[in-house]
Design brief:
Lipoyl synthase, alpha/beta, 14% strand, two-stranded parallel sheet, eight-stranded mixed β-sheet, globular, 297 residues
């Protein structure tokens, strides 16, 4: 008989938390989903739905909607939660605004969400492409409402002014997490700078929106402080969703937040002065985004 080594408890790898049933989603299927995929492929468009492994892709695409990602699909940042590729971008397509606008018209989208990777190497952070995409979409689809989910401009406030001047109804910038976790989650960003970006957007007269992922190790009182900070800087709309680890190279999930906890956080956000809170395990930035255009400025 061979004696096998006994593995002591301290030698065993820590168990990963099991994904709860409320986070299970159906695979994307159906004619509407297939039609959207064909248009995205034909027009050589990038969507954050695919690049970000969004759990709602089937639901949103099945309804004939999508979140478009402009300025390529390689990001200059290396956030530890994000599945978008990091590196030196090779794309800078000045014809992209036309292609995105035409695709939105072909898809007959009533509400479009447009986002982008970070382009820190560009002097204007891609602001001119941002503005042109919104302007052309409005020209081709005047009845379509638009939300732009813009990146951190690294305090290039001239670039911000251009990005938010196209005529979009909602301007979003995600803080992503609480201030204490920024070095871990967003090492190339700053919490106070993101708050300043939201404040300047509000002062320019726009409807403001942001998003926070939960389950990264934040404490409840830290989340409440973030809510207070956002309200103090003019935020109107907040989305709260569960962080899901995209690959083994990314941050582990520290905790799965229950649906009841999400409901409680929604009530807390409204009590603290937010005008609208979208809160749930599968909520992402663009989830139910069409509802947010009616929030008072």
């Amino acid at each position: 008989m061979i004696d096998l080594p006994v593995i002591q408890p301290e030698m065993a790898a820590p168990a990963r938390p099991r994904k709860p049933d409320w986070l299970r989603v159906k695979l994307p299927v159906g004619e509407e989903y297939a039609a959207v995929r064909r248009l995205v492929d034909e027009h050589k468009l990038h969507t954050i739905c695919e690049s970000g492994n969004c759990p709602n892709m089937g639901e949103c695409w099945g309804a004939g909607t999508a979140t478009f990602m402009i300025l390529g699909n390689i990001c200059t940042r290396s956030c530890s939660f994000c599945a978008v590729a990091t590196g030196r971008p090779t794309e800078y397509d000045l014809d992209e605004p036309r292609r995105v606008a035409e695709a939105i018209k072909l898809m007959k989208v009533k509400h479009a969400v447009i986002t982008s990777v970070n382009r820190d190497e560009l002097k204007d952070r891609g602001a001119s492409v941002w503005r042109e995409t919104v302007v052309l979409t409005k020209q081709l689809s005047p009845d379509t409402t638009i939300e732009t989910l813009i990146p951190d401009v690294k305090a290039n406030w001239d670039a911000l002014d251009v990005m938010i001047s196209g005529g979009q109804e909602v301007i979003s910038h995600n803080v992503e997490t609480v201030g204490s976790l920024y070095r871990l989650v967003r090492p190339q960003a700053r919490y106070d700078r993101s708050l300043e970006q939201i404040r300047r957007t509000k002062l320019a007269g726009h409807r403001t929106k942001s998003g926070i992922m939960l389950g990264l190790g934040e404490k409840a009182d830290e989340l409440y402080q973030a809510m207070d900070d956002l309200v103090a800087n003019g935020l109107d709309i907040l989305t709260l969703g569960q962080y899901l680890q995209p690959t083994k190279r990314h941050l582990d999930v520290a905790e799965f937040i229950t649906p009841d906890q999400f409901a409680h956080y929604k009530e807390e956000g409204l009590k603290r002065g937010l005008k609208y809170v979208e809160s749930g395990p599968l909520v992402r930035s663009s989830y139910h985004a069409e509802r947010h255009v009616n929030v008072p400025v």
